[in-house]
Amino acid sequence: MSEKITKGGFALLVILLLASCSTEKERLYKKSTILMDTIVTITVSSESKEKAESAIDSAFGKLKEMEGLINFWSPESEISAINRASGKEKVKVSSITLDMIEKALYVSRTTDGAFDATIGPIIRLYDFKKNKRPSDSTLKEKLTLTGFRKNVVVDKNKSTVYLRKKGMSFDTGGIAKGYAADVAVDVLKRKGIKGGIVAVSGDIKTFGLKPDGLPWLVGIKNPRPKAKDDEIMATLELQDAGISTSGDYERFFMEDGIRYHHIINPVTGLPASGCQSVSVVSKEGALSDGFSTGIFVMGPEKGMRLLNELGFEGIIVDTQGKIYITEGIKDKVKWKGL
Ligand code: ADP
Ligand code: MG
Question: Cα dihedral sign for 287, 46, 96, 78?
């Protein structure tokens, strides 16, 4: 969500829609809009244009509503209200905000803090467009304001959230787009759509099948393309699953040979080393999104272990370009250009 629209468009993943046979009753309908500071594209399989468009518009409407709740960068959002009230008071929030925060805390715990929902004060110190990064002393000072373990108080019954230390803040950038994709899919299903794909920038959730009865195809970007036709590293078949990719190549700048990118190790406050790209596939877009960010920080070995423990699928490219892939998707991936 923190992502402003950049040249990248669909940042890290691309949807591949092969022309579907015209003999089928169902056809593909697709619409894009700008929401949550990024491009949202919804494609559905439907027997009627009206039904498809009305369902897509309802999903866009829901996302617009969510934007007002969970956008870390918007001062009007509930997340910002919690952040402003840090060290002062608890804030009553909607069930959507509460639910997303709980998922962010679950990912934080499960990655043993590699994902940290309270990394806001550190993230604010970087500006990847202006090549700006914090000094060591500023980092040290702000690191005292992070930490989801002791300083976050959630009261589920009262639907309130409190950050204990003044200056603390939630950053929802690593999970909100995947969460939004889940919510959009729920709306489409409720509207009677049987198959579709929602892409909130590079965070993608699919359900059901394409009109030709085949699974949806998603392309995973090559983190270090050497030529134009080398941009997609692999394609992957997906059905009723979300996929997110976290990479060090979309938002970054180079300084003295060091790549400063937007996935931060919460222990040091510096960009995580170890991976170029991490894609996670799971039933929930929110979890694919959160864990792709967290596993990027954990690195390939620990990351693969965690994927297997969770029963999730994934592909990790380490700093040397070595590829790790979970067993369960080996036969669903087609490799290209590497
Ligand atoms: P993108 O936003 O490019 O899709 P990610 O899903 O990996 O990529 O999210 C990166 C964002 O997550 C960062 O811009 C920042 O807002 C947030 N973030 C960075 N490092 C962490 C971390 N260790 N824990 C939680 N959130 C993080
Ligand atoms: Mg993420």
Answer: positive
> Which-ligand-closest: CA of 170?
1
Q: Is 115 in the pocket of ligand 1 (CB under 6 A)?
A: yes
Ligand 1 in contact with 99 (CB < 6 A)? Answer: no
User: What are the residues facing 280 on neighbouring strands?
Assistant: 244, 314
Query: Is any atom of ligand 1 closer than 6 Å to the C-beta of 123?
Result: yes
Q: pTM here?
A: 0.93
pLDDT in tens, 41-79: 999 999 999 999 999 999 999 999 999 999 888 899 999
- Beta bridge mates, 194: none
Could you give the CA distance from residue 36 to residue 28 in angstroms, rounded to a whole number?
A: 24
| Nearest ligand, CA 72 | 1
Token look-up 């040290």 returns: 140
Residue 135 gets the label, from left (phi > 0), alpha (psi -120 to 50) or beta, of beta
Pocket test for ligand 1, best of 262, 265, 280, 317 (most atoms within 8 A of CB): 262
Q: How far apart are CA 193 and CA 310, in angstroms?
A: 29
Cα(244)–Cα(110) distance, rounded to whole angstroms? 17
Whether 30 and 196 have beta carbons less than 8 Å apart is answered as no
Taking the centre of ligand 2 as the mean of its atom positions, its distance from the CA of residue 172, in whole angstroms, is 9
The amino acid at 266: P
